């Protein structure tokens, strides 16, 4: 008998607790700067992007092009010190702008080399440059900061460990370790330099561009060359078994904490195999590096699709889980197409990430001799009283962003679409979505429009029933 795929959601992320904190006021070097007098049409940038799922997060008035982070972490004190150089363009006439930064103290802020005033208020850092910033102006903000970062919750956020630390969290985590415009809508490239004790690995996203040791400390430099949403940025410092190889010309770096069984290394080594499978369904892999990191802290009971190098809680690799140990790798690597390369414009549309990754895991399960995706669909459809039919994957509650319907009914929506438009059109839709929208943000309305364009069918009612209805939709 071929294995059955359990009728449960593979919930690989946990709902992030939204906390507010207090950051001491900035102490810029040199005399405090005073912004040039306001003139008509100039004003402060918005202090939030008004996404109800992350109230207070994100800022308006500018677009970040790149972050250059220089970080040093001392596990003996749990202290992080950093210098963030942020290249951005003003999208409005600005007298000041905000960055998201929580639980860390700024010691100096400059804009285009001139000292700026910086006022901390909760998780906001209000920066007033010495001169107003006209719309269209490129400018560089440099923030020097430090402190002992706090976790968002047990096993989430900036997590200090006995031998190092790691950062993991969705929908927010970036603001707990660097100043940022903390919303997926503002994607940017990154250079991340991490200095840690030489006996430890200091891992992050992207391509490893350099490694140098001085006086017992090693600096690791990572380059993220394709745009990345802030919550996908990560670092993991600790005693890891790091494996380096190449696949189709791309660097592959995987790491497993040394406290974990070596059999996990062999599972992580199959990441390129998973990428090849996903390419056969969704088109070319969208990034220039492949990998993954398995953490040791059992308090982290989820995995996250951190760009190019997902993070996995150890629970997914417990003995006895069978094929599920690879399913989670498939799920997180599928996000490299759907969620990382093509990112949501607002968190309401999370099904575009989680439904797609859930569907990808079903495809993998079928490929390996399990139930077909249609059999998975039929199994779920035969349970009309299940809660997923009363929940709206296209409009999840703000307090339950990661509910089962977003994952499972989101995946079922894709299979229903596949049946409705046929295999050829469906996979053309999936590949086109990944290629046309690569490196950008998108909405459900965008996906509906693409599906209608390629299929030649009018699909508004179909998607309304599957994403917004509170009863089980008609079978396609």
Order of strands, main sheet, comes to 6-5-9-3-2-13-16-15
Name the CATH homologous superfamily of the domain at 343-468.
Neutral Protease Domain 2
What is the helix tally? 9
Structural class: alpha+beta
CA-based gyration radius:
23 Å
- Poorly predicted regions are 1-37
CATH architecture of the domain at 343-468: Orthogonal Bundle
Q: What percent of the residues sit in helical stretches (DSSP H or I)?
A: 10-25%
Report on the structure:
This protein is α+β, with helices and mostly antiparallel strands and 476 residues long. It has a domain of 126 residues: Neutral Protease Domain 2 (Neutral Protease, domain 2, Orthogonal Bundle), CATH 1.10.390. It contains nine helices and 24 strands. The strands form five sheets. An eight-stranded mixed β-sheet has the order 6-5-9-3-2-13-16-15, with no helix packed on it. It has a five-stranded antiparallel β-sheet with strand order 10-11-12-17-14, with no helix packed on it. Helix 3 packs across helix 4. The chain is globular and about 60 Å long. The N terminus is likely disordered.
Protein topology:
Elements: E1 43-44, E2 62-74, E3 79-90, E4 94-100, E5 105-111, E6 114-115, E7 117-121, E8 124-128, E9 138-147, E10 151-153, E11 156-160, E12 165-168, E13 188-197, E14 201-204, E15 207-214, E16 217-228, E17 235-238, E18 240-247, E19 250-257, H1 263-268, H2 271-282, E20 290-294, E21 303-304, E22 311-312, H3 324-334, E23 343-344, H4 351-367, H5 373-381, H6 404-421, H7 423-436, E24 441-442, H8 444-455, H9 460-468
Parallel strand pairs: 1-4, 2-13, 19-20, 20-22, 23-24
Antiparallel strand pairs: 2-3, 3-9, 4-8, 5-6, 5-9, 7-8, 10-11, 11-12, 12-17, 13-16, 14-17, 15-16, 18-19, 21-22
Helix pairs in contact: 2-3, 3-4, 4-6, 6-7, 6-9, 7-8
